[in-house]
Structure prediction request, 639 residues.
Amino acid sequence: MYTFSSKLKSVAFALMIIGFIGVTYGFLTSNKSFTEVETMLAAESHHGEGHGEDTTHHVANAEDSHASDTVVAHDDKVGHEADGSHSHTEVDEHTKHVNHVMHAMHKRPWAALYVAAFFFFMIALGVLAFYAVQYAAQAGWSPLLLRVMEGITAYMLPGAIIVLLIAILSGLIGHYGLFVWMDPDVVAHDKLIQGKAGWLNITWFGVRGFLYITGWYLYRHFSRKFSIAQDEADDNKNFVKTFRISAAFLVFFLYTESMMSWDWIMSVDPHWFSTLFGWYVLAGMMVCGITVIAMITIYLKSMGLLPKVNDSHIHDLAKFMFGFSIFWTYLWFSQFMLIWYSNIPEEVTYFVTRFQDYQLPFLGMVAMNFIFPLLVLMNSDYKRIPWFVIMAGIVILCGHYIDIFNMIMPATVGDQWSIGIPEISSIFLFAGLFIFIVFTALTKQPLEPKRNPFIKESEHFHY
Amino acid sequence: MEASKVIHAIYTDDDVLMNAVKKVKTARHHIDEIYTPFPVHGLDKAMGLAPTRIAIASFMYGCVGLTVAVVMMNFIMIEDWPQNIGGKPSFSYIENMPAFVPIMFELTVFFAAHLMVITFYLRSRMWPFKKAENPDPRTTDDHFLMEIAVHGNENELTNLLKETGAVEINLIDKTH
Prediction:
């Protein structure tokens, strides 16, 4: 049995406290008024040098780039015709720019919190899918790792609820900080969003989220229950039951995961859509999930708690990290190339924003998520060296955090992005919560599922 | 350094063969060659063969393929006959690069795969019209054959191999 070391526990609490303070600070300081932003911008442009260049760049791009911008611009045009009394009608360039920066600043702590919450939730959901695959495929190599996976999936339920709550609260109390389609003012002047209103409305959004989470949680609950019952059983009945519900869960998961990624991520850009977006998000969540399985396994093994896990298990996990990194790149590039090639305005704006305002994170992430794992994890001997897998894993996790960052930020804070106190403290907050929940769940049951029908094969697993 | 006399021990099961290899190795005999109808996992390590370097060769072939693709597409599409690619007539390789990525990928895989297979054949001394070195056609069906050189220790070897579960032990004179 694993006991949660007090050292790790204090690390988790420290992360949560520091994160919470940072997030609170982020929310308190973001609430700048129009005049405050105006003076701040004026001070910045007097600064000369880089900052001045930045602001002129903002003015030039105020008209195009990201979705909420186009929505605002659209808003104005329609306002002229339909609604004469609309307050936005007489905005000049300057007011518009200051307004734009002010809205971005208001949205930033919401977006930062959401990106980090989604990132840690996605790790747990990816592991849950990977866990179901192990049972559905009746994999013989992995049973020794099943309890580690069960520990990680304990975060799935709280993580998913947090993500959904942030999303809904951003619409109820957060000035529509994440999803512009939640703003009735925007929808009233936007024909495209009106057409999607049957799907994109807060009630139905909440109901769908609830259905996804219930389905995932039911699988996690029963598979965990059967897995524990199997330890004391005389036959394989519990295993067979898990096998059946795993197959059913995978079907349910592939549909709901896709819809979840439309709802929770893609709809931040309500004008834009990509048909392979669900797959793309899935690839990212699988890489992160498997990376975290490998890291926690190595950590527990270094404490002598998983004596039967050998370096072939680590090797296989590293192979999956390598393979899913390539799979992620394949989907990232497929999505990019088709849109780049066809160059249709409503589609290509998505990548124009990313190339103009997010060049470093957007291209840097490809280096971190593709070139780095490709070169580092290609050699089969390196996949067996624990510290090598850990180092590669850290880079992959950072890279995929930036991936989620690139999905959410351009549509919310736009060109006002930065990785500062709100972003980093959000990561701390959820990292602390993740560590606390996962390692508490690991203490609950023995780390070896002793009567799994494939446990012998797993013990002797040798690549 | 080839011995004039060899022993051919024949097995009918790969697990028995694996155990036999380990016993023969611990008795410090040199195994010349093993013929199997299918690849037996872990046999190379049990025999103490040097690890394969084909992965390194494959990586280098892949790099060659990638280079060929880049040079070829640059010549064809940018230098020799510049083309308007999807309304992007920039005539610059780097700006049209996304369109060439599938070709770069395919040629990398093509070169790595084909040259690796050819290298493997040549390294195993196999080429078209080569006469098979296989000493017993049954090893292409369901038998496993272990070849051990004899240096005047015929009886000792025969006894050891019998113990390991060989179904048939033949002494072969290689001097024709």
